Queue: 4 jobs
Job 1
Amino acid sequence: MDISSLHYFVELCKDLNMTKTADRLYTSQQTLSNHIQRVEEHYGIKLFDRRPTLRLTIAGREVLSFAERLLAEEKNLKSILSDVVNLDRGEIVIGASSPRSNAYLPQILPSFTKTYPNVQIILVDKTSDQLEKLVLKNELDFAFCVNAAINQRNFVAEAMLNDLIYFCVSDKLLYKHYGDRTESIKKKALPGAYMADFSELPFLTIMANNRLGQCIHACFQEAGYTPHSYMMATYT
């Protein structure tokens, strides 16, 4: 059954007069009658009592309620599809780890939403390695990654910014291990910490299966020692 038959059925229900409805819709009574017959054949039930005057049956009232909802949804769908064609509506799937999305998205979203108010944003929270695989499988439109594989053939990687990795340590812990040398070690580390200077400390580090973790562990390798990892985690 064509949805247009439901449209003719709803219009006839407004007038309950074949002649009046046919004239209003600029169609013939036969055409209108054929549409009504299609609806009745589709549902296998009579929708109108035709004598003494045209009136809806109980089934007809149920079909009318359904048809009005369906036609309203179809009108709404046409509006949505029109927006999609005109790039006013849609969705964009972004990949980023929680720490990264917390840092970047608040800066991006206000201007993006102002320009594309009807575009839905879907955020996928995973590590850089996992996000790159999802980009390659076309499951993400783009992703914020650490040290993206710029030479990877099947996607475009662009350097957006340089992140600083901060080394946080308490004064109490420093003094416990280094005593009076604490202030000189802190001063030396201000332009950038060389990890060998802190080799006696216990560390909370990022796991090496994480892209950021690999960068951090490379700092220890450069310093020539393996840290005493008191605890390891996926994120900071």
Note: Residues 58-85 form the longest helix (28 residues).
Job 2
Amino acid sequence: MSVGPPYDAGAIILAGGNSRRMGTNKCLLPYQGQPLIQHVVHQLRPLFATLTVSTNTPETYAFLELPMVSDRVTGQGPLAGIGAALARATSPWNFVVAADMPEISRDLIEKLAEHLPGNRCVVPVTESGHYEPLFAFYHQSLLPHIEEALHGGKFRMQDFLRHMESATVPVCTGRLPNLNTPSDYALSTKKNSQKPT
């Protein structure tokens, strides 16, 4: 596994969820002149060998011209999406990121990648012990454990990662913001417009 980009790993973009709090499909919201998910794709493309979108509505994201993977069983949350994508992945290691996380921290990805040898998942964790599971590396060797959890009705990512004794990298609370509400989106786009060009 290379310690810097391009990483010898794939990237999986999770484009699930119902966007209830946003009121519209947040992955398609305009961000820097393009759909938010495309903004995420452009940031990841130089870093990883392959990109895959995990979604149960592949027709929605056909414009990305990327491989799509759907959950085997819907309604089981992000753990099911990660499992389905890992099962189809061509790289043993894969970086998983939520499609509603507009700014990808290369520095944090590098810190996570440093911990890959000897581990099966590497995840940021906040001061309060909360895992950030949708900005993390997962190895294909986790697949049997994911299947076991899903079959047992255990869908919570926090519980799964604790059970796996995941390797962790500390982050400050709020370091990995995602866009859940219209106010989140308005604040993020405002901050972005104020950045020097």
Note: The chain is about 30% helix and 20% strand.
Job 3
Amino acid sequence: MMFRPAILAALLLPLPAFAGDVMVSDAWVPTAPPSAPTHAAYISLHNHGSEPRVLVGVSAEGYGMVHLHESKESDGVMTMTMLHQIEIPAGGMMMMKPGGLHVMLMGPKAPLAEGATVPLVLEFANGDKMPIEAMVKPRVPES
């Protein structure tokens, strides 16, 4: 059987993951220089339930520390703040993206290669844990 390149590429992408009413999509980590001391991960979370869900942490094999962060610009100055939780509204979504909410991956034990995946485990306030894989890919400039 022969697959077209686009079909094959689609088959290799990580599939959406679910924890209860929460679905994860578009989990990715931008490529970084081999000596980078930190990486970022971006994830879209969709809450299909009738109650808010709260993301309270993320763990990542291969990293020394992992935190939830938010970047903000105020008066021309970018700041980054560690967050203890992120709420996903009932029937809504929360999208992490460069320059905003993100997962800060600190102290990588190995460099990242484009096309690899980074295993993450999302931890919710109700005790649910959701293993996902974030694809390593180049950052595309926003238009």
Note: The mean pLDDT is 87.
Job 4
Amino acid sequence: MSAATARTAPGPARRYPLANWLALRRNPLAFFEGLARAYGDVVRFRLGPVFVHLVNDPELIRSVLVTRADAYHKGRGLERAKRLLGEGLLTSEDAVHLRQRRLMQPAFHRERISGYGDTMVRYAERAAERWRAGETLDVHREMVALTLAIVGKTLFDADVEGEADEIGGALTEAMELFNRLFTVPFGELLEKLPIPATRRFEKARGRLDATIARLIAERRKSPGDRTDLLTLLLLAQDTEGDGGGMTDALLRDEAMTIFLAGHETTANALTWTWHLLSRNADVELRLHEELDRVLGGRLPTISDLPRLRYAEMVLSESMRLYPPAWIVGRRAIVEHDLGGYRIPAGSILLLSQWITHRDARYFPDPLRFDPLRFTPEAQAARPKFAYFPFGGGPRVCIGEGFAWMEGVLLLATIARRWRLSRTENEPTPAAMITLRPKGGLRMRIEPR
């Protein structure tokens, strides 16, 4: 079927200007759940002057991310995210994106990231040693501080542990204000006005920029014999392209993107994992049994990863229920047909991990926490893109291998010593750029 003869996707009738946007702002997760429930796998609705299509079918998601990836650019949200990330790998397009990915890929080869495992475990054990039995901590804040320290050391060979609270606070402020300012209709106008929210966003971004600028300046001054990401970026030459390296502006943008994305998603994944373990004693017990059997009381190493299969499944199931990256946006650059529906050029397509990961067609009893959904047999029995926590296709997250290794090693290191119990009601997911627990997550530390 051609785009000219394809039909228009179903969706809600337009009630009044900005009605959908207001519902989306109130509760984005509930808004998308309602659309999928009412209209199915492809839903067309309007946000201000723009038509949006919510796509929930795994084969159509594969088409958008993989087979027809050349028909799309990044969505409106990530275009706006350039205000924070610049032209980094997450936001750049076409030739710039391809060149930057070529320059950065060697830093994320399996052999190179495996060398980061000892550092990850050492930092996690140091954090665990600071905890005390019976104390109550904001576990999200703890995970942010831990993963910030790890990304600083492994990817930048820098000690940012002492700044973790300040950097984490600036990041939270920037993300909340980004969500408030730049994801609204006419946000381009708001960002130019000297209103308090805009000034606070600029201050938070300036704090993050200062850290990145310091790291780059220190490395230029004293490069030494290092193999971390920042050094590789400084030395990288595009041998398949123009033979040049990165400009200072692109170096800043890539460093900012990796610094922020390299810790935020893992921190969120681990936070939600502790929450889910505290409410599922049978899963927690089985995890502890695996850790005791594989580790025998010692710290984990990367050589243990193949035998920590249940720990990996726990993390996988946590990211199914609470995907750190909860939505992917694309903008159609040509008119085309998708699943029999006409997608006009300029349309926004949204692919939501939150929706697809909780679809009962692929995950029966979807709200139940069951790591056994991720046995090899269970995974083979469902469509590949029923689960896509790191995206897919040519723009799949470059740090996926790093994130899996870090998540399992940190989970194993901490859970071998401590269990975390709930001290509050069910946390509310805050659907911003990533999926965080609103207001953090306070839990009580208890010895195993």
Note: The first strand starts at residue 42 and ends at 47.
